[in-house]
Write a structure and sequence with these properties.
140 residues; alpha+beta; Yope Regulator, Chain: A; 6-stranded antiparallel β-sheet; two-stranded antiparallel ribbon
Length: 140
């Protein structure tokens, strides 16, 4: 059984705790220049941030899309990802980039192991989604 001291909660979470957690999980992690988020570099680069309320952790990764890609092709790509990959969410940013994200809710407490596991799954699923769903070859 997990003791409450081992759980990450909104009351005890910090970027430093998350950095130490990912470092202990043998993941390549750095604090960004503004000390506002973490960068995880594994198969892809993703950003890890805390919501203002500290009730959730956000994981986000970006891919560029070819400038000449049609809007309908961009939206169909996002729809395929969101239909086929339930753990991650895809969208097109205002600048046209493809964005993937995942949220870890901390309310009630989450184990450090589960946070590291969720981040690893995200990092593995994003390239898989790109590979399987980019039928039109629009991702750079």
């Amino acid at each position: 059984m997990t003791s409450s001291a081992e759980l990450v909660t909104p009351e005890n979470v910090s970027l430093e705790l998350l950095r130490d957690l990912f470092d202990a999980a043998m993941m390549d992690v750095t604090l960004d220049e503004e000390n506002s988020s973490l960068r995880l570099k594994e198969d892809i680069m993703c950003r890890v941030s805390l919501h203002e309320s500290k009730e959730r952790i956000g994981l986000i990764a970006f891919y560029g899309i070819k400038e000449d890609a049609q809007r309908i092709d961009r939206l169909e790509l996002v729809n395929r990802v969101n239909d086929q990959f339930l753990m991650i969410r895809a969208c097109i940013e205002d600048d046209g980039d493809l964005c993937f994200d995942y949220t870890i809710v901390l309310k009630g407490g989450v184990t450090k192991k589960q946070i590291a596991h969720s981040a690893r799954n995200f990092i593995k699923l994003v390239p898989k989604a790109v590979s399987e769903c980019d039928e039109d070859g629009i991702i750079e």
